Amino acid sequence: MLKYAVAVAAIVFAAGAARAQGSTPAEIVRRHVSSGGNVDAIMADYADDAVVLQNGRAIQGKAAIRALFEGMFGGRRAAPPAAQGAAPPPKAGQAGPPKMTVDKVWQEGDVGFDTWHMGPVQATEEFLVRSGKIEVQAIFMAGGPPAPRS
Q1: pTM of the predicted model over 0.90
Q2: 8 Å CB contact between 68 and 57
Q3: Pairing of strands 133-142, 46-54
Q4: Burial classification of residue 12, based on how many CB atoms lie within 10 Å of its CB (0-12 exposed, 13-18 middle, 19 or more buried)
Q5: What is the tens place of the pLDDT at every residue in 71-91?
Q6: How far apart are CA 104 and CA 116, in angstroms?
Q7: CA–CA separation, 44 vs 40, rounded Å?
Q8: Measured CA distances, 132 to 17, 77, 122 (Å)
Q9: How far is the C-alpha of 136 from the C-alpha of 47, rounded, in Å?
């Protein structure tokens, strides 16, 4: 009987720890794509040794991944509450940059997926999530200008 109680307690503890550790892969992907470019929020979900695969290159480690996102979003951090959602209007005659639209988010086991588009660019991303952290993100894009060669 004691063995049974210990086994049940271990299972309950493990399940509780998994829930406390984090979210499902789909929840992490939703949080990632809804971050509004807040680099701190994006980085909170990556493992220390995570890898991002993009345009034929591998970016490894949180520091390198942070630099990638800071380059994309200009190091944007959480805005003060009064400024959230307040973007400057485009200048007369300008439509502004295209907006990223997430088409679908789903998961299969430990892998979260999303598809999105922004103007002519279409993308699918895959996120391998273990212990509540993104270990590998692979980004597949099409329809935009060719990527610069390095």
Answers
A1: no
A2: no
A3: parallel
A4: exposed
A5: 988 765 554 433 334 444 445
A6: 7
A7: 6
A8: 10, 22, 27
A9: 9
Burial class (CB in 10 A: 0-12, 13-18, 19+), 134: buried
Would you state the pLDDT for residue 8?
36
Which single residue is written with the structure tokens 């805005």? Answer: 79
Q: Alpha-carbon distance 17 to 49, whole Å?
A: 22
**Which residues fall within 8 angstroms of residue 125, CB to CB, at 6 or more apart?**
29, 113, 114, 115, 116, 137, 138, 139, 140
Give CA–CA dist 78/35, Å, rounded: 9
> Nearest-CA neighbor of 116 among 58, 30, 5?
30
At 66, the amino acid letter reads R
Spatial neighbors of 148 by CB under 8 A, at least 6 apart, are none
Q: How far is CA 119 from the centre of its chain?
A: 20
The residue type of 106 is W
Residue 31: how many CB atoms within 10 A of its CB?
A: 15
Tokens of residue 148, six digits = 């610069």
